[in-house]
Amino acid sequence: MGGFYDEVIASNGVYKFYSDGEWKETTSSRTVKILNPSTNEAVYQVQACTRDEVDTIFDAAKAAQPGWAKTPLWKRADYMHKVAALMKENAQPMANALVKEIAKPAKDALTEVIRSGDLISYTGEEGLRRLGEGKMLVSDSYPGQDRSKICLSQKVPLGVILCIPPFNYPVNLAVSKIAPALMAGNTVVLKPPTQGAASATMMCQAFHKAGLPKGVLNVATGKGSEIGDYLTTHPKVNCVSFTGGDTGISICKKGGMTPYQMELGGKDACIVCADADIDLAAKNIVKGGYSYSGQRCTAVKVVLAAEEIADELVAKVKKGVEGLSVGMPEDDAAITPVISESSANFIEGLVRDAEAKNATFVTPYKREKNLIWPTLIDNVTADMRIAWEEPFGPVMPIIRVKKIQDAIDHCNSNNLALQGCLFTKDINLAIRLSDAMSSGTIQVNAAPARGPDHFPFQGFRDSGIGSQGIQNSLEMMVKVKTTVLNLDQPSYTVG
């Protein structure tokens, strides 16, 4: 692998956890296996931290936070730039791990690491600008008050931030939480996903090598089913930033007054109007629906097509789907195995339900273990599960609508409302439809997408709490503190 990552891995090949500036092995000697989705065989192992070790990790983060908060903003930004440079210089081994543990195509894996370095660096610059600003108010700006008080407000850290990224972007969505938290003066405990834990742990080595003070960043590895609740309800947690699925709702219900930043998945609807550029719509549906085998929260997950153009659209999407390569991530195939057997089984359940209810299979459904061929399903109706549930796989349902209002109603009836997109040549119609679609972000004439990473990113209803994107995350990671100066009142009149 190379010297840069040597201290991350124990002599027995198990990835260590990170606490108080040191890479450590668990006292329990227990490990968690990470399966390669392409083979269902173990490819990595990480430490299974005990609850006592979780306590120690939080103790380190809590102890380090006051000193880190006093570190000048410019110095925090310098650390971010060092981390970004180290990530890019040592990107390939991390990308190789992404290929093996989450079956991400090789080219996309390397792109994720480089993009993550850019995000960290940009966060350093944006943090300097935004966190350095304060506000002053004078009391006589309010009716009935004289000029006896001056109020100074500033942004101060929340404390210890628990960051939990998902399997599909274990590096990028980790740093999108870690970098704003650190720039804001917080310390961090990272809980990587099981699938993705090796690459996420390797990413943290860049922070270690950049020389961050002990305890500023810490990593707890293990099964979420064993330490998840203990982490999210820990008394030393001052904020939880989570990306994932229904687990996030459970976290919120158990966590009391802890601030949350939640992104919980979506059933991103694509509305294609009768006047749309059909070639453009078809191209974006294929790209948006099948990239990384549909395992993205921003993937197109249901197409709502006007009846007048549905036949033409389906034919062009079919042509695009048939051009997708299917195979292993090492070969940069467009469609690679989904993350696990249980995920593949869930996807198949949605497919079989649609099949039993007489949906039209434009391309045949085919599966070999975790590898599912790209499937296009037409004439989907509202009584089918796939019309509402998120497959997180390379399966695309198309619903034909007589009126665009029917498409809006379907979109707004789903409890998942992360992103959506629409295709029309009429800018006035585009604005009206965007206003009517109750989702966090609406793309006009393009597939849903998270980036650029400084854009706001949020979901409505069960798709999230709060807003992400670098600027919004920085604001989320702080609280406002005010200092009021009470002025002596002169016994004389000036002027």
Automatic annotation (TrEMBL):
Active-site annotation: 263
Catalytic reaction annotation: D-glyceraldehyde 3-phosphate + NADP(+) + H2O = (2R)-3-phosphoglycerate + NADPH + 2 H(+)
Top EC class of this enzyme: oxidoreductase
Aldehyde dehydrogenase domain sequence ranges: 23-482
Listed EC numbers: 1.2.1.9
Gene3D superfamilies xref list: Aldehyde Dehydrogenase, Chain A, domain 1 (3.40.605.10), Aldehyde Dehydrogenase, Chain A, domain 2 (3.40.309.10)
Name recorded for this polypeptide: NADP-dependent glyceraldehyde-3-phosphate dehydrogenase
High-level lineage: Eukaryota, Viridiplantae, Chlorophyta, core chlorophytes, Trebouxiophyceae
